[in-house]
Amino acid sequence: MEAKWANWCAISCTHVPYQSERAVDRLLEEIKGRKLTHFIHLGDVVDAEAASVHADDPGGHTLYEEFCVAADMLGRIRKALPKDCELVLLDGNHDDNIKRPDYRRIPKPLRDLCDPRKMEGVADEYKRWKHIPYRHGVRGCYQLGACIFAHGYSASANSDELEAIQLAMACGGHAHRLVVRGHTHRPVPPTQCKRTARVKLPWWYANVGYMAFDSRPSYTHRFDIQQWGRACLIGECQMGRPGRMGKKSWSAELIGLD
Question: What is the rounded CA–CA span in Å between residue 197 and residue 193?
Fold first, then answer.
């Protein structure tokens, strides 16, 4: 029987309403005409600045307005894809901040009202996307053949590799898997994990960077953003159980959107 393959594209960290319209337009150009079977947004769809614990954040917009802009952006992406393309939306830490049990953000009685899948005007678009919660481990991952997609949890310099190993093990420990993350805003092409400089491990990692901030936001004045970059990852992978694949069964390319 001929193997079935999936063609996918992954992005992350649009941070609506601070999405880079230039990057979104470049993304639409890249995906238009491609026969993609899956599109994965790895999280931080919205910035959730309206639910920030910091009273001096410069927002000036409501959470509902963030969801409205996000729904419009997601709709534009969906319309550029084949009609049968599966749409996947992971929560990132910014999305999850809205739901966290923290009285400084959203009072407990109101948290259920902050779900965009239940909000008039945005629910129709959000319901078209498969939802993955922000959880550390297998529950917070979307798996497609040998590829594992997660938002990411740590932003340290070597977090892509460390979390790739952790998530690959959490998802069964099978060899030849690719772990795709966002979160750090640092794009990284598919790279093989290593135990030492000479000893390679049977897992790979990649990072899709981010898609926000056409100009540097004020709150990043203490951050080193030299490695930040706007990008997407486009790839293909053989469908099936990773444990039955005795070799690398995927390919992926990092495409800059700056």
Answer: 10
